[in-house]
Amino acid sequence: xxxxxxxxxxxxxxxxxxxxxxxxxxxxxxxxxxxxxxxxxxxxxxxxxxxxxxxxxxxxxxxxxxxxxxxxxxxxxxxxxxxxxxxxxxxxxxxxxxxxxxxxxxxxxxxxxxxxxxxxxxxxxxxxxxxxxxxxxxxxxxxxxxxxxxx
Length: 151
Prior knowledge:
The protein has 151 residues and is an alpha+beta fold. The chain has one domain: Molybdopterin biosynthesis MoaE subunit (Aldehyde Oxidoreductase, domain 3, Alpha-Beta Complex). The protein has helices at residues 12-19, 52-70, 100-117, 147-150; strands at 2-6, 26-33, 37-38, 41-50, 74-80, 82-85, 89-97, 120-126, 129-133. The strands form 2 sheets. Strands 3, 4, 6, 8 and 9 form a 5-stranded antiparallel sheet that branches. It has a 4-stranded mixed sheet with strand order 1-5-7-2, with helices on both faces. α2 (52-70) runs antiparallel to α3. The longest helix has 19 residues, at 52-70.
């Protein structure tokens, strides 16, 4: 397993290449990237902070649990901290398995569980302000209102 918290851009291609083995029938990749908007608000950048030691420990436990639970061969789980610009990778999950179903299931479980349980926080800076986000779903009261909805 490769579990890491980094402060520099995530080297996605090399992590994916290193995860592959001849016994694999599937490699499922989740590449979480900074998008240019959230709920009709223009995103300028994101800042990620963490309780690093605890976050890394919890990420290692999640990866180990996913290997056991979904019977996949290997997992890479990398999260970036600091300021990220639109288009940059914030989290990369790579699951290698003999079968695609297990790889997909493990990958989805990992990102959903990571967002709910690991002490990593995201501050979203928009053209019209900023907010600390606490995962899914985006708080409705923070969404920008369209002209139609306001009127």
